Amino acid sequence: MLKLIIEDFRAIKANDPAAKNWLETLLCHTAWHAIALYRIAHWLHTKLHIPVLPRFIGVIGVAWAGVEIHPGARIGRRFFIDHGTGVVIGETAEIGDDCVMFHGVTLGGTGHHDGKRHPTVGNNVLIGTAATLLGPIDVGDNARIGAETVIANRDVPAGTTVVGAPGVIVKRDGRRVEEKLPLAHYLRKPPPTHGVQGEGI
Ligand SMILES: CC(C)(COP(=O)(O)OP(=O)(O)OC[C@H]1O[C@@H](n2cnc3c(N)ncnc32)[C@H](O)[C@@H]1OP(=O)(O)O)[C@@H](O)C(=O)NCCC(=O)NCCS
Hints:
This protein is an alpha/beta fold. It has one domain: UDP N-Acetylglucosamine Acyltransferase, domain 1 (3 Solenoid). It has 4 helices and 16 strands. The protein has helices at 2-15, 22-28, 30-46, 53-65, and strands at residues 68-69, 74-75, 80-82, 88-89, 94-95, 100-102, 106-108, 120-121, 126-127, 132-134, 138-139, 144-145, 150-152, 160-163, 168-172, 175-180. It has a 7-stranded mixed beta sheet with strand order 3-6-9-12-14-15-16. Strand 15 and strand 16 (175-180) form a beta hairpin. The chain binds coenzyme A.
């Protein structure tokens, strides 16, 4: 756990040009404080199954940094949140390695799902300020989601840039495009089967 917290700290330097002095960063990067509290709360919640305390540690993160990360959320290595205030990450959200998030991001539920209710975000994904992602959607690796984007019940393909409300794909693997986002995997109908092999024999 300590290793993860140190890696998160190093990710600040890699991502934030304003982080020039390590002592200042240690003392003043409140979003990292909230991530460190989350790492502790997540460990207590998932490894020791301690009730109440992990959520209470999360409350300290909200009061101190304005960042609410449920201890049940799963977050990969080198997670970086810039500024932080207003970030909400729900209980069943999953986030890969090397992801970057700005203030005001919501990884939330739509209120229409039980169990897995929150987004699954791949590796190396950037989510801009005030972006709202709702439902158990998938966000592919290397996606870039613009500031103020809203995505509900749509998956985000890997390597795309998505902007707007509702979000549309404006770049795919670095090339300018204009495409609608695909329906989320859980809303897609299975492809039609044209007879079962061996049928009618
Ligand atoms: C989306 C983003 C990640 C850029 O990704 P990118 O792949 O480099 O995309 P580009 O900058 O080439 O933009 C592609 C198109 O989307 C538009 N666009 C970019 N971000 C947008 C946004 N948030 N909302 C609407 N349109 C946006 C650009 O104007 C461009 O359109 P154009 O080709 O017609 O001019 C970036 O614009 C962004 O929103 N980053 C978030 C940063 C943030 O939150 N900062 C807060 C600091 S306090």
